[in-house]
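CO-FOLDING WORKSHEET

Operator: S.A.
Ligand of interest: S-adenosylmethionine
Run index: 266
Mode: holo prediction, single chain
Checklist:
[x] sequence pasted
[x] SMILES validated
[ ] output reviewed
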Amino acid sequence: MDVLRASVYDYPKYYDLLYSPDSKAEFDFLRACFARHAKRPVWRLFEPGCGTGRLMAKFAAAGYQVAGNDLSAKAVEYCNARLVRRGFGPTASLGDMADFRLPRKADAAFNTLSTFRHLDSEAKAQDHLHCMADALAEGGIYVLGLHLTPRGERTCDDEAWTARRGHLGLAVRMWSIRLDRRRRRQRIGMTVSVYTPLRQFCLAGELMLRTYTAAQFDRLLARVGRFEVVQTYDFAYDPNRPIRVDSETEDVVYVLRKRRRREKMG
Ligand SMILES: C[S@@+](CC[C@H](N)C(=O)[O-])C[C@H]1O[C@@H](n2cnc3c(N)ncnc32)[C@H](O)[C@@H]1O
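OUTPUT RECEIVED:
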């Protein structure tokens, strides 16, 4: 099989097919979070690192006003084409989630699949959280899902799954190549084997993600001082089963509520 050295992020059609099966569970979970944890009606949404907009499109179809940004021009183009095809505005823009401003504040924002870990320094993570707090209206929430690095053994270092749509078949494998706890970096390998009637090839790429223990994430939030954690869940996306995060936790969805200005100062 031919091997192309490339990131699946540059192949939005394949990316979208690989991650779409999870979208319904995330969508239902996020709606439950908005209803339970936001202290305002949720109508206007923002997704930093929106990728192909698999979630934005679902929310737009459900009547929400959606916007997002992403560093990948191909992902933004794919996302906007889908929104326009379905009769919505092209509200994804090319941008950095650590450096943006919204023209109108959102009621809620969401960021799943460890996208936040793409920010490769503490400074960028802080900048991101400040941008997010500025982007949210009073009482708004930011639902942020990421894999944490537990203190002991990790159990989910290798994942593989397949997806099919019509004549297109995909098989993906993701694995941890190296975890450097001291420098807080995890190198992750990813291969996507693509099967079509005319061609078969493999995309082989790597991701470098920043690592967080639960304590490191807590310290980051405390330093930024703009959010309170109002609930924590895991990647089961069950709004009726919150979890308690400790040093062994591996996957977590934080529901962060923007602090009021007075709370921040005090
Ligand atoms: C795991 S994908 C998630 C995409 C989408 N949120 C989803 O749930 O399907 C991560 C995305 O983050 C984008 N990304 C990485 N660093 C970024 C940054 N600094 N600002 C904006 N987007 C970024 C990538 O281009 C990629 O589309």
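REVIEW:
Residues 9, 19, 47-51, 54-55, 69-72, 75, 96-98, 112-113, 115, 118-119 surround S-adenosylmethionine (CB under 6 Å).
Residues 10-149+212-265 form a domain with the Rossmann fold fold (CATH 3.40.50.150).
[x] output reviewed
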